[in-house]
Design goal:
The protein is built from eleven helices and ten strands. By secondary structure, the protein is α/β, with parallel strands linked by helices. The protein has one domain (37-323): TIM Barrel. The strands form two sheets. Strands 1-2-3-4-7-8-9-10 form an eight-stranded parallel β-barrel, surrounded by five helices. Strands 5-6 form a two-stranded antiparallel ribbon. Helix 2 runs parallel beside helix 10. The radius of gyration is 19 Å and the shape is globular.
Length: 333
């Protein structure tokens, strides 16, 4: 039987949730090593922007937003340059990372007032030492369309070759008990989980959760590459991550390249048929080494790379369809 690994002719069959494109053509699905059947090159690429993060501050990059008004201004720049999915870590007005309901809601409201439904809002749930109940509280209050969910525990570090020492290092604990508790809350609140996978084992952790009935197709996974303690940022490793998505389940995937490896991973994902994330949480620099003056500059360069690779940036309506989200009217468009 002929095999069709993400050719353009698969694109029109990408409409019915929960069914692989090859099944839509009447073909049985057989997972084959080294082949990435779950995203078609004909699919538009979703451009996500991680607007601020929770580790770096303005000492490292002056463009990082702190106040709701600054988040809103950055959201406008992101949308104007083609970004359709905004990932949020909340901060207080002085830039301190926050997990308080009022800060998440204030940032959400400011972004919605600026761009309406022109972007999907995504709240982070990744943190160290913050109880699950506190994270669920800001999901309940803010009701983002998507929430990021870290898929496993790991050493998480940044290493300095010039110092021959770690800049920071800690254990990033994400046990299955917490993952399941957060998933159950997201299901109750009708929030789509974004599965952030820092290694191949994190991708493999999706399969038992599908079997338990905790996840519904299409899955939405992002592969975080380049963190010390996680998978190294190479195109071969990216292909391996995508190839280990659960067999027989419709999935959408993208890449999150950390630091200056970001642009190579963006190029690799676009070539392999995936979506992409940029933003000041992950990387401050444009490909030429210039520090970005806004998230909009990073998104503009990502859009240009997508177009140069023959991929069309997704509209927000297309992004919602690819991620399995309900359609929304674009008020303020």
């Amino acid at each position: 039987m002929a095999w069709c690994p993400y050719e353009r002719r698969c694109g029109p069959y990408a409409k019915r949730p929960g069914v692989l494109r090859h099944e839509r053509r009447g073909r049985p699905y057989t997972k084959r090593p080294g082949v990435l059947p779950v995203v078609s090159l004909a699919d538009p690429a979703v451009i996500t922007c991680a607007i601020s993060g929770a580790i770096a501050g303005r000492e490292q990059c002056p463009a990082i937003p702190y106040t709701p008004e600054e988040y809103a201004a950055e959201a406008r720049r992101i949308v104007d340059e083609g970004g359709v999915h905004i990932h949020i870590h909340a901060r207080t007005r002085d830039g301190t990372p926050s997990y308080e309901v009022e800060d998440f809601v204030a940032i959400r409201d400011a972004i919605r007032a600026e761009v309406g439904e022109q972007a999907i809002i995504n709240f982070s749930t990744g943190t160290v030492g913050v109880p699950v109940a506190k994270r669920v509280a800001y999901l309940e209050a803010g009701r983002p369309e998507v929430a990021a969910l870290n898929m496993g525990s790991m050493n998480y570090a940044k290493y300095s070759r010039s110092r021959r020492d770690f800049v920071f290092k800690f254990v990033f604990a994400n046990p299955f008990e917490e993952i399941i508790e957060l998933l159950e809350a997201m299901r109750r609140l009708a929030i789509k989980p974004e599965h952030e996978c820092f290694d191949v084992g994190h991708v493999a952790s999706l399969e038992p959760l599908v079997d338990m009935g905790l996840l519904a197709a299409p899955l939405h996974a992002d592969f975080v590459m380049g963190v010390v303690g996680g998978i190294p940022a190479t195109a071969r490793n990216l292909a391996a991550m995508a190839d280990n998505l659960p067999a027989g389940v419709d999935s959408h995937w993208g890449v999150i390249g950390i630091g200056r490896d970001q642009w190579r991973m963006v190029a690799a994902a676009l070539t392999l048929g995936g979506s992409i994330r940029v933003g000041l949480e992950d990387n401050f620099y444009l490909p030429d080494g210039t520090m970005a003056r806004s998230n909009g500059e990073l998104v503009a360069r990502a859009r240009r790379l997508a177009e140069d690779a023959g991929r069309r940036p997704a509209t927000v309506q297309e992004a919602r369809e690819l991620l399995g989200l309900p359609a929304r009217a674009e008020a303020g468009a």
